[in-house]
Amino acid sequence: MSFAVRVDGLGFRTVAGVDELLPGEVFSQTQPQLIGMGDDLAQRRALMVVDAWRILRALTVLGWRDDVESLIAVSSQDVKDMYTRAPVFRRLSPFVELVASAMNKTDADVDELFELAATIE
What we know:
The protein is of the alpha+beta class. The chain is 47% helix and 16% strand. The strands form two sheets. It has a three-stranded antiparallel sheet, with no helix packed on it. A two-stranded antiparallel sheet has the order 4-5. The radius of gyration is 14 Å and the shape is globular. The protein starts with a strand and ends with a helix.
């Protein structure tokens, strides 16, 4: 069973897959706990899973896509494969952390990317 979790942490619902996400939701394969305003940021980040198309669109909207793709072009084959073939991107993925670090993006920047991606229809 999979879940669509509201990015504000105030609810979730069951879904068959990533394609059923609505704006403002992220994908989770484990049943989440409801997250309130005062809960741990790391827990919220662990729930941030967004399909690849939405991440690509958010990168374009933020103006980061060309820089990301330039970085990917000179990276290892594993990194290239991850970027071009991953069906979803996880906020706490080592791949995401690697790219963010190489681009000098802060945790807040990456959170913004995932939060924006979750709202794209």
